[in-house]
Amino acid sequence: MNPSTANSLWIGLALLLVMGSAFSIIGSTHVSRSFYAQLQDLEARRWYLEEEYSRLLLEQSTLASHFRIESEAGDSLGLAAPGHDQTRLVAK
């Protein structure tokens, strides 16, 4: 084999390896950026869900307050707390 042919083969192989390395870097950069974009979307969704959960907790505490339950029972159902004349003490 001619020395210039051997050098050409080594140069061609090195060029092929460099090009392959460059394309794999481009591919991994693309994948990394797409994963980062997906991470940003998931973090935005998590923040939205945390805000929604906080709103729901506030709404639950508002709906479950004793004052609201008592007023709803009186307004909607016509219920009222019994007076002293309507209560009895039961002793054993």
Automatic annotation (TrEMBL):
<comment type="function">
    <text>Essential cell division protein. May link together the upstream cell division proteins, which are predominantly cytoplasmic, with the downstream cell division proteins, which are predominantly periplasmic.</text>
</comment>
<keyword id="KW-0132">Cell division</keyword>
<dbReference type="InterPro" id="IPR011922">
    <property type="entry name" value="Cell_div_FtsL"/>
</dbReference>
<keyword id="KW-0472">Membrane</keyword>
<keyword id="KW-1003">Cell membrane</keyword>
<keyword id="KW-1133">Transmembrane helix</keyword>
<dbReference type="GO" id="GO:0051301">
    <property type="term" value="P:cell division"/>
</dbReference>
<keyword id="KW-0131">Cell cycle</keyword>
<keyword id="KW-0997">Cell inner membrane</keyword>
<keyword id="KW-0812">Transmembrane</keyword>
<comment type="similarity">
    <text>Belongs to the FtsL family.</text>
</comment>
<protein>
    <recommendedName>
        <fullName>Cell division protein FtsL</fullName>
    </recommendedName>
</protein>
<comment type="subunit">
    <text>Part of a complex composed of FtsB, FtsL and FtsQ.</text>
</comment>
<dbReference type="Pfam" id="PF04999">
    <property type="entry name" value="FtsL"/>
</dbReference>
